[in-house]
Structures are given as structure tokens and as C-alpha cells.
């Protein structure tokens, strides 16, 4: 059953609010995905704080006009799935790009991150970046490496002193 004008207006208002509150937004071509693949993708995205929705292009265009984002007109060609990330900006993008690559169907078209419009190339680059936890682990490892080196050097000096004293003891005939 077709939606009434009032339902469409409510959907535009809801979508506009979600777009304005989002930390990042990605628009993807999902053509060719089965319902089970789409459902699986939605579940994976919800685990990392993302929400994937399919909206009519005209309603999406109206919502985007009210948010003042300048997106390419080619965005509205074909079916569009909208990923809205509310918690982590990058994790849902990583999941979406990986899933589309695994399914070998669809692609990301454009996105918005901190008010900047991103093309497909930049979105794929973002998806290939390490996560926040991986970066934190690298920083901690980098900070800890010199400390481990100092501990090793200090232990070596003490170990050498023990070996020298042991040799002196053996030379003097002690056991």
C-alpha cells in the first residue's frame, strides 16, 4: 500500500533529524543484495552503533536539502541505502565496506563525516584505518618499548655481576 503524503513528510522529518544528529553518514548502492544479506548487514551494523535504512531517493534528496550538504547528483541514481552512525564514526563504515567487499555486490557512493562530504575513495581509505583500540595499543606499545629496553639493560648488568662473583668464588676454591 502506498504511503500517504503525511507519512512521507513524517519520514522526511525523522530522516532529517537522524542526519543532523549523526556522527557520520554513508550512502551505498545495495543493488543485488538479497534480503538475508541485507538483514545480516543490518545486524552487524547495529552491533557497532550503525543503522542502515533504505529510503526513496526523492525523500532522501529533500532531507539532504534541509541539512545543506552538497552531494553529487549521481548519488540519486539507483537504489540507495543510508548508513547512519551515532556512536563511533568509523566502525560502521568499516563494517559496511567489508561486507560489500565480502558479498562482492554494491559499493559505497558518498558519505559525510564531521560536515565534510567524502567520495568513495576516501570512504574506503577510512575503512582501512586501524580502529581506536588498535591505535591505542600501538601507542602503549611504543611508550612501553623503551622501558622494556632499560629493564633489560639493567638486568644484564646485575646478571654480569653475579657471573663475575661466581667466577671469583670458583677461583678461590669455593663451591
From TrEMBL:
SUPFAM superfamilies: Ribosomal protein L10-like (SSF160369). The keyword Cell membrane does not apply. InterPro entries: Ribosomal_uL10, Ribosomal_uL10-like_sf, Ribosomal_uL10_bac, Ribosomal_uL10_bac_type. Keywords: Ribonucleoprotein, Ribosomal protein, RNA-binding, rRNA-binding. Pfam families: Ribosomal_L10. CDD domains: Ribosomal_L10. GO terms for biological process: translation. One of its GO terms (molecular function) is large ribosomal subunit rRNA binding. GO terms for cellular component: ribonucleoprotein complex; ribosome. It comes from the Bacteria. Forms part of the ribosomal stalk, playing a central role in the interaction of the ribosome with GTP-bound translation factors. Part of the ribosomal stalk of the 50S ribosomal subunit. The N-terminus interacts with L11 and the large rRNA to form the base of the stalk. The C-terminus forms an elongated spine to which L12 dimers bind in a sequential fashion forming a multimeric L10(L12)X complex. Belongs to the universal ribosomal protein uL10 family. HAMAP family: Ribosomal_uL10. This is Large ribosomal subunit protein uL10. It comes from Candidatus Daviesbacteria bacterium GW2011_GWB1_36_5.
Amino acid at each position: 500500500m502506498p504511503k500517504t503524503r503525511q507519512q512521507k513528510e513524517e519520514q522526511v522529518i525523522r530522516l532529517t533529524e537522524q542526519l543532523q544528529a549523526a556522527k557520520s553518514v554513508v550512502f551505498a548502492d545495495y543493488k543485488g543484495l538479497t534480503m538475508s544479506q541485507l538483514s545480516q548487514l543490518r545486524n552487524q551494523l547495529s552491533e557497532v552503533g550503525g543503522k542502515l535504512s533504505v529510503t526513496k531517493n526523492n525523500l532522501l534528496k529533500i532531507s539532504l536539502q534541509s541539512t545543506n550538504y552538497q552531494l553529487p547528483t549521481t548519488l540519486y541514481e539507483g537504489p540507495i541505502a543510508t548508513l547512519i552512525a551515532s556512536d563511533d564514526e568509523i566502525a560502521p563504515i568499516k563494517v559496511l565496506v567489508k561486507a560489500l567487499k565480502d558479498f562482492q555486490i554494491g559499493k559505497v557512493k558518498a558519505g559525510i563525516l564531521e560536515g565534510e562530504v567524502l567520495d568513495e575513495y576516501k570512504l574506503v581509505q577510512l575503512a582501512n584505518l586501524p580502529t581506536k583500540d588498535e591505535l591505542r595499543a600501538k601507542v602503549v606499545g611504543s611508550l612501553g618499548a623503551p622501558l622494556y629496553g632499560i629493564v633489560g639493560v639493567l638486568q644484564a648488568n646485575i646478571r654480569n655481576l653475579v657471573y663475575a662473583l661466581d667466577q671469583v668464588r670458583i677461583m678461590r676454591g669455593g663451591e
